[in-house]
Design brief:
The chain is α/β, with parallel strands linked by helices and 550 residues long. Helices cover 57% and strands 19% of the residues.
């Protein structure tokens, strides 16, 4: 419930403080007196965008502060989720600085406009003529039915299921695109992979082949030098082996004289053994060296293949070629497995659709069951408002489409008079009829939604006389369960209020300001009489005003 409102330096208002009752409050005033300014101030508190044109004094900041009693509206979770201090009496403050910057606070904690707007949706429903036009909107019509059908929990479940379905569908679409991409690359990748497989790549192979190539390319030169080495080692007169043998014999005679000489003998003996082994291996290597042009050709061909593949894949080693081969084999396996992935996702999508379809059907059934109840209540109220023959036809169609709140589409048809065909509401209802329909809808929704405050901004447009009196009665009944404000030009409605405020403009020097005054007693009688007869108030108008108030 809106308990109080303070406004400073906003539009034509210099400073204003006002307290409100929890019943029906009436706001009246001449056109242009500033009633829209009050709504504008409330709009800022509820999160509307602000600009410098809102400031009366461009050098000072604008402050709008509203106090709400929220203890009965189960908002603790909202405050916890948004890290706000919960207070049974919550104060929302909005500041607009001369620089153009805007700040918002809830119980002195800074808050973003997005969160403020979400909070505002729980506090006040401002009904304007624009919202009356929204009655023709399919989404708004569905919200009306859902309020009566109590589909909130089912729609919450549906939205979670819809999120899951969209996620699975996205994964499925991605997998199918991946399959298409792999199909485009498949033939080329298969060709590349087969090339690498046919090359029979082995780690270290390139270095081994290059060494063997060097050897086979220089067979004669190598044999010549090996033969020379063998000769120097094995010559009977001057060979290294013969010389070592003679050194060994000489040292053998000295080895028994001292440990030092024995060490010389042992070392030369080791050299002789090592020299003999090396000479033997050199001889064997010499014997195995043959000029093999065929092998040389094969090595050249294999190396040329390796060099070609390395250039083609922009790498420098066989190890890198093997890595590319492994990657291509992995892609081939991936291509083979993508069908299984797609099948798995298709099964999951089918299962998710079955679950969400079941929930959507439950929502649709609840809506169809609620329509007769809703229609009966609205037509009963319209009958009181001078439309006894009004008829509604809510056509809810279950579709194959997944909308945000289910799979239903809706069309609202209306007939105001007997013998007239049904037509789309926005085409066949007049402005006055739309106002009465909207009030009836709001009155019905008041029994189902838990909105603490509703503000009717000239919902009485297009009606007068006894009908306006009935509209006032409906608002009066609504105010028994919620706080109701009515901005009106009709005395019949104004007389129904528990409180009556008048908005008026005054001139102070060179400045025009808007003010708000709580009327009581004779002041209220005169205001209603003026609404009846104009500035020149007659005695009959005063008597009529007293009669209305009584």
């Amino acid at each position: 419930m809106l308990q109080s409102l303070q406004i400073k330096n906003f539009a034509l208002i210099e400073q204003l403080h006002i307290d409100f009752s929890d019943k029906l409050s009436i706001i009246t005033g001449e056109t242009g007196a500033g009633k829209s300014i009050l709504l504008g101030a409330l709009g800022l508190v509820l999160g509307n965008r602000a600009d410098l044109t809102s400031l009366k004094d461009k050098t000072a900041k604008c402050i709008i502060e509203a106090s709400f009693k929220i203890s009965d509206y189960n908002l603790n979770d909202f405050f916890n989720q948004n890290d706000l201090d919960y207070e049974a009496t919550t104060i929302i403050r909005r500041e607009i600085l001369p620089s153009g910057k805007s700040r918002a606070f809830v119980n002195d904690s800074p808050i973003t406009l997005q969160v403020l707007q979400q909070l505002g949706n729980h506090l006040i429903d401002i009904h304007s003529q624009q919202q009356t036009r929204e009655l023709s909107d399919e989404q708004y019509q569905m919200q009306i039915i859902d309020a009566v059908a109590s589909t909130g929990a089912s729609i919450a479940t549906y939205k979670k299921q819809l999120t899951k379905l969209k996620s699975l569908q996205l994964d499925l679409d991605t997998a199918k695109q991946q399959k298409a991409d792999l199909a485009k690359e498949h033939d080329y990748n298969t060709f590349l992979l087969q090339e690498l497989i046919d090359a029979k790549l082995e780690a270290g192979e390139q270095e081994s082949l290059e060494a063997e190539l060097e050897k086979l390319s220089n067979v004669e030169f190598i044999k010549e030098l090996l033969a020379k080495a063998i000769g120097l080692a094995t010559d009977e007169q001057m060979g290294a082996l013969q010389s070592l043998k003679e050194i060994k014999i000489a040292l053998q005679k000295l080895s028994s004289l001292s440990a030092e000489h024995n060490s010389f003998y042992d070392r030369v003996s080791s050299l002789l053994i090592e020299m003999d082994d090396v000479t033997e291996e050199i001889s064997q290597n010499f014997e195995t060296l043959v000029d093999d042009p065929a092998r040389l050709t094969l090595i050249n061909q294999k190396l040329q293949l390796l060099y070609t593949l390395q250039k083609k894949h922009n790498v420098a080693t066989v190890a890198e070629l093997i890595a590319i081969q492994n990657e291509l084999e992995s892609k081939a396996v991936q291509s083979d497995g993508i069908d299984a992935t797609i099948q798995k996702l298709e099964d999951a999508v089918t299962k998710a659709k079955a679950a969400i379809d079941e929930t959507a059907l439950l929502i649709s059934d609840k809506r169809k069951a609620a329509i007769p109840v809703l229609t009966k209540k609205i037509t009963a109220l319209l009958s009181q408002l001078g439309m006894p023959n009004a008829r509604f036809q809510f056509n809810v169609t279950h579709t194959d489409n997944y909308y945000i709140t289910g799979k239903d589409s809706i069309s609202l048809l209306f007939s105001a008079n007997k013998g007239t065909d049904f037509g789309l509401l926005k085409k066949v209802a007049s402005g006055g009829e739309m106002s009465r329909i909207m009030l009836s809808v709001k009155a019905v929704l008041a029994d189902y939604s838990k909105l603490p405050t509703i503000i009717f901004d000239e919902i009485d447009t297009g009606v007068s006389g006894e009908i306006s009196n009935k509209m006032g009665n409906i608002m009066k009944v609504m105010s028994n369960g919620m706080q109701v404000f009515a901005i009106t030009h009709l005395p019949q409605i104004a007389a129904k209020g528990n409180q009556h405020y008048k908005v008026f403009k005054t001139t102070q020097g060179e400045t025009t300001v808007s003010e708000l005054k709580l009327l009581s007693g004779e002041d209220r009688v005169r205001e209603i009489a003026e609404m009846l007869s104009g500035k020149d108030i007659s005695d009959s108008a005063l008597n009529h005003a007293r009669a209305l108030l009584n």
